[in-house]
Amino acid sequence: MKIWVDADACPAVIKDILYRAAQRSKRPLTLVANQMLYTPPSPLIRAVQVPRGFDVADDYIVEHASAGDVVITADIPLASEVLLKGALVISPRGERFTADSINERLAMRDMMEELRSAGVDTGGPAALSQADRRAFAGALDQVLQKAARDEGAGAAERGTQS
């Protein structure tokens, strides 16, 4: 399992949580952005700078993410695409996107975009709160713990088949 981050809009505090989680869980973490990013020195953590352009970072993540990987993004279309590949998706606010919830989120996103293009001020998202940070850390921890349990069970099963 690899962790992929749509890093252009990912808050620094969420990146910090991800750096610690990658080290603790020994999972590779890749931040994808169209700007140069600083990452702590670690063989598990890397940043990929893609060219500027519409959805270039998203396209990179879709191309490289695999089933069972975790993708961190608030981008609903990106979440939809990687869910189709079997990846798990968590927003920086700790919301788990699923195959069941993503169509509703896409419809809401499209409706809000129509309102904005009609001149309606829809406001932006609220600032990331302490509760959002806790929700993100909890959701990430659940996914990483489940992966560790699944890998442990798989190793035990392979051991009994020998």
Describe the structure.
The protein has 5 helices and 6 strands. Helix 1 runs parallel beside helix 5 and helix 3 (76-84) packs antiparallel against helix 4. The longest helix has 32 residues, at 130-161. A hairpin with a 5-residue loop joins strand 5 and strand 6. The protein has a 6-stranded mixed beta sheet with strand order 3-2-1-4-5-6, sandwiched between helices. The chain is an alpha/beta fold. It starts with a strand and ends with a helix. It is globular and about 60 Å long. The mean pLDDT is 89. The chain has helices spanning 12-25, 56-64, 76-84, 99-117, 130-161, and strands spanning 3-6, 29-33, 45-49, 70-72, 88-90, 96-97.
Low-confidence stretches: none
Separate helix tally: 5
Report the sheet-strand fraction. 5-15%
Instruction: Give, in spatial order, the strands making up the sheet with the most strands.
Output: 3-2-1-4-5-6
Give the structural class: alpha/beta
Shape: globular
Portion of residues in helices?
40-55%
Number of strands: 6
Rg of Cα set:
17 Å
What string gives the helices and strands in order?
Answer: EHEEHEHEEHH
How confident is the prediction overall: mean pLDDT? 89
Kindly, what is the distance between the CA atoms of the first and last residues, rounded to a whole number of angstroms? 25 Å
Main sheet: strands, sense, barrel: 6 strands, mixed
Features:
single chain; about 160 residues; alpha/beta; six-stranded mixed beta sheet; 5 helices; 6 strands
